[in-house]
Fold:
Amino acid sequence: MIERSVVVRVHEGLHARPATQFVKLAKGFACDIEIRCNGRGASAKSAVKLMLLGVKENDEAVLRAEGEDAADAVSALATFLQTPGAGDIALTPARAPAAAAAETAPPASSSPAPVRPGCRGVAASEGTSIGPAFAFFPQPLVLEPRTVSPAEIPGEVARYRTALAATVASLGEAKSRPGLKRDDGAIIDALIGVAEDADFIAASEAAIGAGRDAESAVTSAGQEIAASFEAMADPYLRARAEDIRSVTRNLVLALLGRRDASLAEMPKGSIIVADEIAALDLAKATLADIGGIVCRKGAATSHVAIMARAHAIPAVLGAAIDEATLRAASSVGMDGTTGEIVLDPGETDRARFEAAIEREAGERRSLDAYRTLEPRTRDGRRIEVAANLGSLGEIEGALASGAMGVGLFRTEFLFMERRTLPDEEEQAETYAALAKAFAPHPVVIRTLDIGGDKPVAGIDFEHEDNPFLGWRGVRMCLERPDVFKPQLRALLRAAVAGNVKILLPMIADVDEVRAVQALLAECRSELDAAGVVHGAAELGVMIETPAAVFLAAEIAREVDFFSVGTNDLTQYVMAADRLNPKVAKLNRTEHPAVLAAIRQAARAAREAGIWIGVCGEAAARPDLIPFFVENGVTELSMSPASIPRAKKCVTEI
Structure:
């Protein structure tokens, strides 16, 4: 048996989407795998049991595997658990501060108070809207449980399996509907994972085996699992009860041969009023036609809320309105930023909502104008505003946001969550595709930045008490040329396709830069000898260690550019773990010590005649952009959603 203890770094823990992906990864191995956390254990191949463990970010979990591929399984699953972004969907584009804050709000009362002229719910997706109400209250399923004889049991099991296949097929069709985003697809994949969960299936078939008809067996199994989630304290996990109820309902409808109520016929601009909406219901609607969403149940952590934010649909959930009053409304005014709801608004309220809508539209239009703009300061300095990316799947969104290239491409995601290292050919194709997509704009590709905190299969990392200060980044790469040189050769080959720049992480000494330069020379010679076409690529370093700051003048004479990684630089300058909430108040890029370090690196870059960029998320902060530009930064790289606002900030300097 192989056993390994890991600290979970997955953002928000193993809620639905990361749990689904974790299980999918586990099912790729033949061995038996168990995960234990908080004194309880579960199969790593059951999404429902895994979510019920309530594994949170920063929890310690133990992986146990037994079988011929146990070592590979534990390595891959440990990597997943130690990757902060594993399983995440892009919430940033429409995630409002109000919505984020609302995630800690208590669940809506099961006995809501009568409606007031104006009331509030959970602010789940920002934006103001007013429009006709579209009542969406699917008829409750009234079942008449019956006992089946032993002879009927095989037939009931067969009916259930047919309904399961039909439900999964229906989910697959919803996933392929036009207008859905990749993130919506991830939510539907999570629902498919619930439907196909081995424990859900086993509980349903066990109830049938005990003599219950398929409909009541599925209902019973679903209710029991949903109740387990509703009893949990974590809001992300508690919100998964909605998914269980949705899948259960769809299974029962398939067994009954009935179609459910649909949002497909909803008039454009309507505001949906409902008791609860499932993510699948929303996926079947024409999302661009929805004016807003008001529900009596739900939270900002629900999949409906996440989809609403992704599609910029205003939403208020957990509204304290009795069902009869909500059903009777003919029009609704709502503010998804504050959670305000007004049913059948009068002239004064209507004018207020319409003014807010116009103001918000003006703000969006003003930012839209910056998507295609090449930003310059008022005194004419051109600043490149680029995107931070981790996969080719993010290219479309970055281009739509107006990215002027890529300021940071994280190559470690090519290496993680897989059982073997990517070869040179696969890497070259990936980097070339990235370069072509953004040509002639530059793409800055960071070489492998992995360590004990995010290991990969094929590289043996010994246990380190503090992997952030350990064998990671360029330190590991220089000791593993068998891993590093194929990546360098792939980058040189990709340089033929576009404007590729190579970025080295975790540099702390000028000799490290010179060692990489020597390896690059070897790689060029090897490609020449093999007759493989390759191109020139600028070489730069991450400014993220205090050592790199102090040696910036010397390092600048050896490279073509600097890129400030504000996340790690802040962590190292302040000696404050950026994943530890107890020292969060110290982890501030705007701290004078961190700004002094950036200023020193920028001065060294200017004096050496090389360019300097900023690729941490601080690059998008309106309060810091003037400081960066003032100190000679010519490139700012960030999440794609932040690009238009950053461009606007630049033009105002």
